[in-house]
Specification:
Number of helices: 5
Mean pLDDT: 83
Low-confidence stretches: 97-104
Shape: globular
Strand content: under 5%
Distance between the termini: 31 Å
Order of helices and strands: HHHHH
Number of domains: 1
Number of strands: 0
Helix content: 55-70%
Largest sheet: none
């Protein structure tokens, strides 16, 4: 992940709400990664994951998020850090997008 340079005075765009669209998963992850690396550098891992999850709303992604939160509360999730969350998101929401790119 990128390291913060020059302090928090730098303005960084926050992520848009992610609604589970396949074609937007990489954009969401990249934007969230940039924001976290510049603005939420000193926070604990659960704060970073909570921030990312707060931007996942509506439809299928809301249900996916709620299931993950249940797993986290029960300590049954393999996801422990935000990078693991990004990887899980790519696996869940990006597979079809990759297949579509190969077909075109």
């Amino acid at each position: 992940m990128l390291q913060q340079q020059g302090g928090s005075w730098v303005k960084v765009a926050k992520s848009s709400i992610y609604r589970g669209k396949i074609e937007e998963v990489s954009i969401f992850i990249n934007t969230a990664c940039l924001y976290l690396s510049m603005k939420i550098t000193e926070e604990i891992k659960t704060t970073k994951m909570a921030w990312v999850l707060s931007y996942m709303q509506k439809g299928v992604v809301e249900a996916w998020k709620n299931n993950l939160l249940d797993e986290l509360l029960k300590r049954e999730s393999e996801v422990e850090i935000v990078e693991g969350l990004f990887k899980k998101m790519k696996n869940e929401f990006g597979k079809t997008a990759e297949k579509e790119k190969k077909i075109k």
